Amino acid sequence: MLHKMGIRSNLMYTLGVASIGLAFASWATSLKAEPHTGLDRADRWGIFIGEWAPTFFALGVALRIEETHPEPGQESMEETTTHGVPTRAGV
Fold first, then answer.
1. Is the dihedral of CA 8, 11, 13, 15 positive or negative?
2. How far, in Å, CA of 30 to CA of 21, rounded?
3. pLDDT class for 91, splitting at 50, 70, 90?
4. CA 64 – CA 70 distance, rounded (Å)
5. Which residues pair with 86 in a beta bridge?
6. What letters, b where the CB count within 10 A reaches 16 and e where it falls short, cover 18-51?
7. Helix count (H) and strand count (E) of the chain?
8. pTM check: above 0.85
9. 85: buried, middle or exposed (CB in 10 Å: 19+, 13-18, 0-12)?
10. How far apart are CA 70 and CA 83, in angstroms?
11. Which of 45, 51, 55 is nearest to 25 (CA)?
12. Residue 50: CB partners within 8 Å, gap ≥ 6?
């Protein structure tokens, strides 16, 4: 369904990497912005956001499989385009 909506695997991989950076940033921000709550609260924020990364990476893998192994009767996006430019016509 995500593939039909135009979402590609590269976007999911990018979001996975970004969520790792966001997890570190939220941990550091929480540690400095809420010093009275201690390390435990900062760890919870970092872990909460850090758990998004595996989901994004798993969705990226699923979309990559969809892109490279289309259902019968459909052709792969990688076979038909190279950076948005058609490479094979009329298939």
1. negative
2. 14
3. very low
4. 10
5. 81
6. ebeebbeebbeebbeeeeeeeeeebeebbeebbe
7. 4, 2
8. no
9. exposed
10. 19
11. 45
12. 19, 20, 23
The SS3 assignment for 81 reads: strand
Exposure on the CB side of residue 32, measured as CA atoms within 13 A: 5
Pairwise CA distance, residues 76 & 91, whole Å: 11
For the stretch 20-57, pLDDT in tens is 999 999 888 888 887 777 788 888 888 888 899 999 99
Determine the pLDDT at residue 14: 95
In single-letter form, the type of residue at position 79 comes to E
Collect all residues with Cβ–Cβ distance below 8 Å to 11 and sequence separation of at least 6. 60
User: Quick one: pLDDT band at residue 85, thresholds 50, 70, 90?
Assistant: low
